[in-house]
Every structure is written in structure tokens, then in C-alpha cells.
Batch of 2 targets.
Target 1
Amino acid sequence: MALLGPLALGMLPGMTSIPDLMLADGHAIPQLGYGTYLVPPEKTAEAVRSALETGYRHIDTAEMYDNERGVGEGLRASGLARDEVYITSKLSNAWHLPDDARRAFDATLAELGSDHLDLFIIHWPLPTRYGGDFVSTWKVLEEFQRQSRTRSIGVSNFQIAHLERLARETGTVPAVNQIEVHPYFSNDEVRAYGQEHGIVTQAWSPLARGKVLSEPIVMGIAERLQRTPSQIVLRWHVQRGDVVFPKTMSATRMQENLDIFDFELEADDLEAINGLDQGEAGRIGPHPDTFDWIPG
Ligand SMILES: NC(=O)c1ccc[n+]([C@@H]2O[C@H](COP(=O)([O-])OP(=O)(O)OC[C@H]3O[C@@H](n4cnc5c(N)ncnc54)[C@H](OP(=O)(O)O)[C@@H]3O)[C@@H](O)[C@H]2O)c1
């Protein structure tokens, strides 16, 4: 092992590997990935190549990020095989009608240059659009899964009422629900519903877009444990059992954010971070019950 360089191994210097979580459909997902929201399209291939070289094996993208093509290019530039990397993409708010969703999924695969995804998810429920019908959209995702063009299917920004409706009206449970979660907005009710129903929570904006990194409680724990604030916050997420994919353009921060599997937070520190929750006041993104934006 020691003779292999960092490019061959990734993950140095911690030398610990990223754990997999098991989804209810039997597929495994790496608990830490690389997020690509606001990674500019022209910089995506290099950012993704760099993340893969650092040791990431899970990339989160979306049609609405306009960078799926760069994700595919970055994967090919890395020299890794398609099946060595877990790739998620998301259905745009513009394409909830079934035929639109079918065309959009074809386009996503073409942009990525892949014949399948690991996970495809509905980006937003849009309960005030499409006559409030996200159920027919979900049934199209079930179709993609039956065709083996995506291993898993899931949702994003679904509230408990939306998940209950899917459970009532369809035969399948989403493998994941990707929702806003960070210390200022711990979103525990939606997470608890997921835990009870076999839905893995993916925590988006895990660092609250950087805002929580100057929080004195986080900085204090980081100083005491000789870690960085980002490592403390990501470790808090991982110990809560969620999947995370922090976004950064910096190779140094990519390494820093990956190097969280060789230490543990004690119960007191977890509790102190739990205490930062501000409920709804801590939410930084749009509210899923009212968000209705459709790309023009
Ligand atoms: N499903 C959804 O609706 C949804 C919504 C939002 C996000 N997401 C997904 O979740 C991913 C992560 O969320 P996010 O990008 O909104 O926010 P985030 O990961 O919480 O924060 C990203 C910000 O933190 C900074 N940062 C990252 N690592 C750092 C470190 N070690 N030290 C200091 N600053 C650091 C980054 O700056 P630099 O780039 O300058 O390093 C960037 O400004 C997205 O990329 C996307 O894949 C999904």
C-alpha cells in the first residue's frame, strides 16, 4: 500500500475509506460525494477530475446545474471506469410531464455520455405546479428503473405530506430524499420520516454554504480536536447517518472535506452542534411547499 502514490490511491493522508450506506433497493451509495451546484459549466470537467483524483467516488449533479456534460468529461479524464463512480442527476422543474421527463432523462444520459445513472431524482416536488401531480412524474422514474437505465430512484425537497402521498398512490418508496440539512436547519422531522420508512436522507448545503464554518461552537470543537470547522460539520452529518456532498472549487478543500473518516465526535460535541438548530429560521434555500420556479 505505502508504495502507491496519492493519484493511485486517493484519500491520502487519512488513509481511511468512504463508507457505503445501503439503500432500501439493495444498492450501495458512498456516504460522501462531491456536489456540483454552482460549479460553472466550463470548469466542471476539471473540478470533477480533481475530485476523483482526490478520492471522491460519488458526484451529485442536475440538469438545472447545466454541468452534466462536464461531469461526464471529468469522469472520462480521470481514467476511472464508469462503474467505479456513483453518479446522481435530477429531473429539471421544467419536465414533470411524463413525455417531457422521458426526453429529459435521455438528454441527461447523453450529456453525461453514459447509458445509465446510479440515482435519478425529482429535483423539487412543485406542489403548486402541474396540478399538484408529482405522482405521474414518479411513475416515469419507476419506468426508468425497470428498464435498468438507473439503478435507484429518489426525490429531493419532498416534505412528509409529499412522501405520504407517494406511499399511498404508488408501489415504491424513494431510495433517498435529498433535502436541506445543516446545523442551523437540522430538518429532523423529515429525516425521522425517512428513517422510519427506509428512505436515506441526503443533506444538501451541508456547510450551510460556508455560513456555519465561522460559528464559535464549531470553531471551538475544531480547535480542541485539531480539525477544521468543515471537517467537524461534515463529521456531524456522517454520524447522524446522512449522505453529504459538499461543493468546493478548491483542491485543498476537497482533500480537507474527504479527510473525516479517522476521528469521531463525542456525544457532548454532537449535542452542542444539535443546539445550533434554528428551525425554519435557519433554512437558507426555498421552501418546498411554495417553491415553483421553472427554468425559462
Ligand atoms: N437538491 C437540491 O435542491 C439541492 C440544493 C442545493 C444543493 N444541492 C447539492 O448539495 C451540494 C452541496 O450544497 P451547496 O453547494 O449548496 O453548499 P455547501 O456544500 O454547504 O457549501 C459550499 C460552499 O462552502 C465552501 N466550502 C466548501 N468546503 C469548504 C471548506 N473546507 N472550507 C471553507 N469553505 C468551504 C465553498 O466555497 P469554495 O467553492 O470557494 O471552496 C462554497 O462556497 C450542491 O453542490 C448540490 O450538489 C442540492
Note: The pocket of NAP is lined by residues 35-37, 60, 123, 156-157, 178, 204-210, 213, 230, 245-250, 253, 256-257, 285 (CB under 6 Å).
Target 2
Amino acid sequence: MRWSLNVGSIAGTAIRIHVTFLLFLVWLGMIYYRQGGAEAAWQGTIFIVLIFLCVLLHELGHVFAARRYGVKTRDVTLWPFGGIASMERMPDKPGEELVVAVAGPAVNVVIAAVLILWLGPRFDLENLTKIENPAVSLAVKLAAANIILVLFNLIPAFPMDGGRVLRAVLAMRMDNTRATELAATIGQGFAVVFGILGILYNPMLIIIAAFIFLAASGEATQAQLRAVAQGTLVSDAMITAFESLPTSATVSDAADALIRTTQTEFPVVDGTGHLRGVLTRDAMIKALKQRGPETPVLEVMQRDIPTVLANTKLDAALRALMQRGQPVVGVTDADGKLTGLLTVENLGEMMMLHTARAEAVSGPWSKAN
Ligand SMILES: [Zn+2]
């Protein structure tokens, strides 16, 4: 990911800080400086850095819980609005998903509890509401911030952890897709309530509401896609009419193929019919600009393209496509010869057809009945 700085890695997960987060710190520092000079600027900035350390620990809570179930996390990125852990996938069993979702907020509960125990009688519940008051000690503020993090994350709406908890609990009683749809609907209900409160009290809430609303519908669409993918074979969804390039082809040959066809990704196939790599339109244009038309495609194509067998279920291919951020997945027969391709667009088309067929059979209002 561009615009984010790698600051290290923990147990195979890269820790990244997005540039906007650094700008956010500078901006906050300046505001504090104007209000109370250098002293206030330092204290304010240190406080925010400590809060984000708690956010990072929260994300690592998810990461380590997911590792227990064999799910890896490529990186955790800190943004001004919080941390995002890019997990490969969610564990399939609702019980495991529940543990992964709860592990994040649990870390903040522990931090808050430790701080409150350490503060002892110095901890006063009333101070929790005066988080912006400079007279309140750093430890009290930090305890308060962790409590707020827990409460905010337990709102039962995607993308908050509470949304996942709700989904996992529902999935223990009904099938997966239905659970996600219901959780998404409940989340959108919360978003509407937030929106109304926002209009009445605080415009910030309107932005949060819009964010939650969009995240919830995205989650529902993905769940639909997964459900369809589980009931479909790769051979039913793949592209079979496509052009491929021989290993001897140059970028100039590829450019001809780009004009001649509607494809934007070209598989490079050797004499035995095996997939050697894929040349994308972007890589082609870049190679033309930087290295000239006679560059062999073998030198500029993307290697390590995942392949799946034509007679496997579509969800394995879907995972390869989504998680590794690949442009295409190759489909092969039992001998390893390339027989088809899967792209994000053609999966999208398949979803549209699926929805259209389902509605043609049962009518568009069948869901409401
Ligand atoms: Zn979380």
C-alpha cells in the first residue's frame, strides 16, 4: 500500500502508519500549541500517540486470535480514524469469528482495568467525562479513552467489532448468508438512528452514520457472493473465450491483442498449454513507455498467478482473487493446461445473472413476503 510507512513487523504482520495519520498528529500538535504553548503541544501529542498504541494493541488482539485459527494477517495500518487489520479471511465457524471479534475490545478492557487498578482512589468516574481537561492526569484520560474504544467498537454494526459479534451470534442459529443479511440490516438501522442523532446534536455523527451504512451494504453483498460461490463450480463461471500470448510474444504483440479484443489481462501460455504468467494492461502500457515495444512479455508479466481446477467450487477461486489481490485466477484441467480465466468483472456479471434469475422466478418483492 502506498502512502503508508512500514514501522516494523510483529509475528509476520507488518505494522504500517498511513501518511494522513502523521499529518493528523502534526495538525493536532499545532492546535495544542496555539492553545497552551510547547508544553501543551507535547502533552497532547503524546496522549494521542498513546491512544493509538492502544488501538494498535486492539488490532493485534484480533490478529493473534485469528492466528489461532490459522488465519494470517498481512498488515495492520493506523489511520487517523483507527486501525485496520487486513486479515486473509474471517474464520468460517461462527464460534471462532466471535472469538476473533471479541479479542480486540478485550485488549482495551484489560488496559483500562490495569490503569484503573493502578490509579486506585485517584481514579474518579467523574473525570471520565472531562477527557479534554488539561488538569486530568494522563493515566485517567487513557483509561477513559480505552473505555470509549470498547463502547464504540461494541456498537452492533459493521465495520465495528460489535457487527461481527452480532453476525457470529446470529450465524449460530441460522445459515450464514441470512445471518449476515440480518446483521447488516440491524447495522443500517443503527446508522439511521445515528444519522438522526447527528442532525439533532452533532454533525460528526452523520459522517459516521454514512460510513456504517455503506459498510453494512458492502458486507451483505460479499455474503451473497460467497453463498453463490459455494453452490457454483469454477467451470460454470469461468471465461472460456479469450486470447492468450505465446512465451515468445513481445509487448508490441500484446498491444495488438489489446486493441483486437476486449480483454485487459492476457495469459502467457507455453508450448505445453501451461500458464506461465499474466500480462495486465497497466503492465503493458508501463513496459511500452519505459522499455519499448520489443520487450519480451516474459520479462514484464506477473508471475505466481494462482490456479484452480475447473471442477472445484468457486469459493476457493474467489478467495484467491480477493485475498491476494490478483487480477485473474487461471483455471486448469487435470493435466495443468489452461482452460479458462476468472476475473473480478466476470464474477460480478455472474452475480448480476444470478440475481436476475432469482428475481424472475420469485418476483422482486418475494424477499418482503
Ligand atoms: Zn476491532
Note: The pocket of zinc ion is lined by residues 58, 62, 104, 153, 161 (CB under 6 Å).
